[in-house]
Amino acid sequence: MKKRSIILVLFVLVITSCSPTYQQFYNSHKNDVNSTAFQMPRFLVNILGGLSPETNSFFKNMNDFSYITLKNVSPEEWELINIEINSITNKKYTDILRKTEIDQKTIISAKEIDGIVKELIYFKYQNNNVNSFYIKGNFDSNKIEQLVSNNEFENLSSKLLEYQN
Question: What's the Rg (C-alpha) of the chain?
C-alpha cells in the first residue's frame, strides 16, 4: 500500500510539472516554415515607439518579450496549435478575452498574483495566420483591462507585423 502511494505521488508530481509553457510553444515553432520569431530584451522596447503613451508606460515594467508569427497554417497544423495554446492558457492563466469564431480566434490571457499581472499571452489566429506574443513583468491589472478595451494589444500586434516586414 505504501509503495502504491509513493508511485501515485510521483505520478502526480510528474504530470503537474509537465504543464506546457509559452516558451515551449515558442521554441517548438520558431523554426517552422513560414515563421518569424524574436525575443526582445527590455532595452529594445524603444523600437515600439509611436504607440500610445499608455502602451509605452506599460512596457516600462516588462522583463521578457517573445513574439512569433506563423503564416499559411494548414488545417492540420492549426488543430495542433489550437490544442497547444489552449493547454497553455488553461493552466494558471485567466482569460481577459477569448473570442472564437469559425475561422478566427483571439485570446488575451494573464497570470496574476495579488492583483499584479506577471505574465500575459496574446494569441490571434486569422486568415490561416497565427500572431502571438508573450510578456512577462509586473503590470497593473486595471491597466491591462484598459489596454484590452482600447484594442492596444491589437495595435501592438499590428506594429510588430510592420516591424518584421
Answer: 17
